[in-house]
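Translate sequence into structure tokens.
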Amino acid sequence: MKNPNRKIVSKLEQLPNIGKVMAAYLLLIGIEHPQELIGKDPLKLYYMLCEKTKSHHDPCVIDVFMSVVDFMEGGEPLPWWSFTPKRKKILQNRFN
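Result follows.
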């Protein structure tokens, strides 16, 4: 896993869990620099992506967005699947 220094990371692909496809998704929804992730709601980013592409994306995309927002806000560089339980809980609470 990549372990960039969040203070100097300047490209989306330098973030943990972000490859070419995920970087393209972020660009598509207006995120051009890693610093722009700070304070963002990963679920809103996901819904923006689905709206922009007019398609439903796998929920693991939410996990990836959660991982990079968390990292940029000071969290450890964790694998995206570490956020799956949190995402499931958020969605369960949202729809109950």
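Note: The chain has a mean pLDDT of 93.
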